[in-house]
Amino acid sequence: MAEFDILAFGETMAMFVAETPGDLASVEQFGKRIAGADNNVAIGLSRLGFNVAWLSRVGDDSFGRFVRASLQAEGIDCTRLKVDPLHPTGFQLKARASDGTDPVVEYFRRGSAASHLNIDEDYDVTLLSARHLHATGIPPALSSSARAFSRHLLEAMRGAGRSISFDPNLRPSLWDSERQMRQELNELSALAHWVMPGLAEGQLLTGYRTAPDIAAFYLERGVQVVAIKLGPRGSYWRTVDAEGLVPGIAVAEVIDTVGAGDGFATGFVSALLEGLDVAAAVARGNWIGARAVQVVGDMEGMPQRCELP
Predict the structure, then answer these.
(1) Model pTM greater than 0.70?
(2) Among 46, 247, 269, 300, which is most buried by a count of CB atoms within 10 Å?
(3) Which CATH number fits the domain that encloses residue 51?
């Protein structure tokens, strides 16, 4: 029997969010939080009652201790969060956005501890102790060793008969070329059972323009369920024998768009793991994604189980 419901991995950074709007150069006060798409989903799933293990590396520094304490406070098992004595914990600065525009974010992550994830470390016991793996396209973009490590995790979990979800979460600036990004992420997507790109991401990765064609691209490569995020319009989903469009949730005011996709992933993955049908899973994803854009912060809109409709 699996020790954990979900294994997630990636890079958690310290994040400094501007307390006031304007150019980051003129901001004098920041609030300290954690950031990272992969851990946003881990936190969201933990809040919904899943037993989640986090696999990563942090530096032997105050940021690393802050990351560990923050994740543990969310109920996440950090036994597999290793301390790297040679490389620092990454961090970022985030501008204050309260009008619905994408906030400016400056990253300081090159050479970070998480970018040194590698397959030489003994994580295989952890792999087989979880019944589901959630992965994104961010760790493969960090370095060649993290890319090999990501592939190792997906192949090992797939080979062990575990379910896998994959969110491309494109970070083009971290890749050597767009071609490399497309090839690597499409190969990793083909190892997953559930894939959930945004429409623009799917268009870039597959070369197709419409949601049905993008979904067909992944289904032909062995993916079982594809959900494509369409922003305020909702989400399109497709399996080998069915498809549908689930309308978005009306939002009175968009405050901060960061974390919307992670909210969708949290809802979508949690519902499928609970045995709900695909349409219901997409509906939950839309609902949590809509919550995420109504608050300042990357994961502050993630609900507790008792808040689900």
Answers:
(1) yes
(2) 269
(3) 3.40.1190.20
